[in-house]
Design brief:
This protein is mainly α. The protein has one domain. It contains 5 helices and no strands. It has helices at 6-21, 25-39, 43-59, 63-82, 105-111. α1 packs antiparallel against α2 (25-39) and α3 packs antiparallel against α4. The longest helix has 20 residues, at 63-82. It starts with 5 loop residues before the first helix and ends with a helix.
């Protein structure tokens, strides 16, 4: 299991706080997605992120997203523990369960610091 740095953990918390603070659904999803990218190496944060995504999908009455998040909640910790997760993936149903994606530049800079 990869241990994430304190800087990476702070970025995760910042993105989750921004998600909680906004009233705009598109902005909330964007922050949750960014937090997901950062959380992937950590089983606990990765799972917590998918739980937050699930809760938001339920609040939005998005059945497809909610069901997809249930699947991701189940596989998040094992994926993090084994290092089998798609780097850069935003964690949403439309992203695909195992599809790697580009990591935004500012996030990549923090992860590589």
């Amino acid at each position: 299991m990869a241990r994430i740095s304190d800087t990476t953990r702070a970025l995760y918390r910042s993105e989750m706080a921004a998600a909680a603070a906004t009233t705009r659904p598109d902005e909330r999803w964007r922050h949750l997605e960014r937090a997901h990218i950062v959380s992937q190496p950590d089983p606990w944060l990765h799972t917590c992120n998918h739980i937050s995504m699930f809760r938001f999908a339920v609040r939005q009455h998005d059945r497809r997203e909610a069901i997809g998040q249930v699947v991701r909640i189940v596989v998040a910790a094992p994926g993090s523990l084994t290092g089998r997760y798609p780097e850069g993936n935003t964690g949403r149903v439309d992203a695909g369960l195992m599809t790697p994606m580009p990591i935004p530049g500012d996030i990549a800079a923090t992860l590589n610091a």
